[in-house]
Amino acid sequence: xxxxxxxxxxxxxxxxxxxxxxTGPTILFIHGFPELWYTxxxxxxxxxSHGYRAVAPDLRGYGDxxxxxxxxxxxxxTLHVVGDLVALINIVAASGEDKVFVVGHDWxxxxxxxxxxxxPDKVKALVNMSVPFSPRNPKFKPIDGLRALxxxxxxxxxxxxxxxxxxEFAEWGTYRVLxxxxxxxxxxxxxxxxxxxxxTSHDDPIILPSWMSxxxxxxxxxxxxxxGFTGGLNYYRALNLNWELTGPWTGAQxxxxxxxxxxxxxxxxxxxxxxxxxxxxxFKKDVPVxxxxxxxxGVGHFLHEEKPDEINKHxxxxxxxxxxxxxxxxxxxxxxKWCIGSISNKIKETLRRYLLE
Length: 357
Known about the structure:
Elements lengths: L4 E7 L2 E8 L4 E5 L10 H8 L4 E5 L20 H15 L7 E6 L1 H12 L4 E7 L12 H9 L4 H4 L5 H9 L1 H9 L31 H14 L2 H8 L1 H7 L12 E6 L10 H6 L2 H5 L3 E7 L6 H4 L1 H13 L2 E4 L2 E4 L12 H11 L2
Parallel strand pairs: 3-4, 3-5, 5-6, 6-7, 7-8
Antiparallel strand pairs: 1-2, 2-4, 9-10
């Protein structure tokens, strides 16, 4: 972990904290809720050691990134966040690297889908996890639909009133709140009834998920103790505004190469019709260059932390299939095939084996 470098970058009117490591084609990692750049620690180390430059920011409202008006949820639309990331890509991309690879999870997946819709010219290929693409429904707003489907105790509905859920989180304590989110593994929608939350008592012992260390949870807790949860909750509070602003993209497809990975115990896979959408052709229709869908058995929502070795290999193999080798440089292509310059067959085979290890 001490190898990972940290810096602050001025982008789109905010100061963004960025963790990075490695040299080679750039991979932009986009975290979700309640996460930070730290959620990608396993992927950063692995991909950097395999010839990539891993770049993982704290999104606006999170961690050590500062400058976003946290008291104003209207400043947390997908247009704002994608604007941050496009500015970041323009700064961190290597000379001649007009596109980057992108990996997203949870809200990071939603932002990645939006990035591919708004600025596909910035993305070589995408690995998205947990949250499939959600095409805009012109007939009703997201919050209205979710309230009608799941009621007022559904977690996204509970997040809507500024200050309300933050007050409950404060009563439960940051450490316990984060642990309850990370260990949630029910293959069903998440409900947080007022005053009950995850159903644990303040006096119950805190039992960590098997894949998370005390030091990991303490890192997350130290950052959310400093910033609070409002920045992350604002993404949910901007859902209806996103709908209002994205009318021009109604019916638009995501036209970059995509690999999608989800755990079969993930709440997102088992709510809002996601499983049928993925398995019955709707997903492929909206994402026509969808290369592969991988459903991991016995795995929950935070799959990249729960099964880092497996996820690392999936990401590595998929991104390597979009690397183009020429005699003088590495570049990328948006076709699932090799593009190799005029070098000997022996060298070609060696390069293929190296990149697919």
